[in-house]
Amino acid sequence: MLSAENLESIGSEGRRLVAAARQDPHGAVPQYPGWSLSDLASHVASIHGRTVLICRELPQKRISAPALPERRNPIDWCEETLSEMLVGFRETRPDTAVWAFGSEQTLGFWERRMVVETGTHRWDASQAIHEEDQLTDRVAEEGLEEVGTLWFGWLGEVQTLEVNATDLGMLWVYGEGDPTASVEGTASELVLALMQRSSSIELPEDWASAVDSMAQPPKR
User: Of 103, 128, 153, which one is at a domain's C-terminal end?
Assistant: First the structure.
């Protein structure tokens, strides 16, 4: 059984995203110019749909995320894949070996990845319906952990950075050796800055450039 706290976060944030999309399906998503909330729902459903397949098929090699089925409402599909994914997680063990990004090739990786994926895109959806909100503590903590275990290796040559989440009382150091730069703030604002989103945090110049160069989701 995977983490009850993480599964609760995925379910809650996923339902909030679906609710926002139903409120204004055609609403523009500020994070992704040209996307509507329906587009965002379709993107999240596709990612959740691949995770459903990973839970069911336990692939050892990369598999593709499914596309929106013909004549399906993307918001309905998002709600459906969220439910299926939660069932899949509850019926599997976190140490089960599967294909995953990075070095940790287990279903536990996908549980934590979906906490961040779902929670961050829920924040995107909230911005689209003009709800000024933050990431939850669970999403923000997993997001800051993920920067070190996954994304840091894709940033290229950046200085060692100390990140202080003042509201959580937690520190992260990204890189080797003693930090040569530091930033502090709430966990939510730190994660938003590190994930190319609007934030009060000002990253060091090399980090800001590296983060900005990371790819965005493809336009549907």
Answer: 128
